[in-house]
Sequence to fold (389 residues):
Amino acid sequence: MKHSIRRFALAAGVVAGLLPGLASAQPPAAEFPSNELRAVSRSLDAAVDAWVARGVARRDGYVYGMDVAPLLLYAARTRDAALYGRLLPAAQSLVVTGGDASTNGYVLWRKRAGEAPEVTGATESLWMARALWAGASAFGREQDRSLASQILAGYARHAQETGGAWRVRRYFSFASRSFADLSLVSNYDADFLQETESRVDSAPWSGFGRRSYAVLEQAVSPTGLAYPVIQPADAAVYPGLKVNAYAPNGALVLEDACAAAEGAVRQRPELAKNLLKFTEHYERRDDAGRLYAYYRHADGKPIGKRPLSSVGYACLVRVAAALEDRARLMDFDMVLTGDIRALAQQPGETPLMLAGPLLLAAQAAGALGTPAAVQSAQTVPSIQVINSR
Fold:
């Protein structure tokens, strides 16, 4: 059979379990999350503690924003004060403060000691702000909420309005002192932006949530997935249309479409429901039962053989958990379990970029909760905080 329930090993050491057969043919699971998912998730949590204790820089000496921010968010959501405290200095080092007022609050794509900043990231900014905002709530650290607000103010400067069309640009280059003429659907987090603007007086990002919802609604392709690239529409060519979303080479990117849906899941759940419905079709999976990474924008047929990454699957799990879609969670369970197990056992360079998203997915699915021995919130304020003036 093309889709058996036997497990396969995928490239790069990432194990993907074969997904169950059609939901209608499967008996109800006796338990979800499975004991196996709980066990491997605890193993990865323990491995991450050891990795972070050795440092978060990669072999090239760089600390990357997307290595740190998702793990910081995970530590806040599980109230793991020890992990949060170890990650916070690295997170702070990635935020530009105390320099040029025009770049204060920017979050760097990566940073190496002694080197000048290179580029910022809109997606990194959103993840870092979410993590710090959550940390402020979990541990009573208002200074972290203040830093998150600075980051969101910096994120707001990535926005551009041209001819009535609005978008958020992907990055700012310090070398050229200019923004990229590119915006991706992963650069928006409408739910978080709307939630936070009401908590800050005269927030520079006021109205960004509403605008982000509008952008994402107009970016939906005929398949139900969001197009990956956003750009202002030409009013002369597309009268009345505020954005022109498109798929380069006609390819939809499932991971990016998931990021867009996750960022609007509370107020625009139909985007997430369309995404999960798209994943139900088995012709969109490889022989190992794993979803592909790319699809044709017109009819949703796969493009190439590249499998969806662990980060992409982790996003799908979080979206399914947010919608309380048990059928999809059961469908994704074996892949998530296999990917987490493989990562926890992976030798060589510490793969923090995958760890944060996978642990957040396990926590969202109920496989991980608050650690048994959580340090009290009172111990956290001793962490050194950068000057966030």
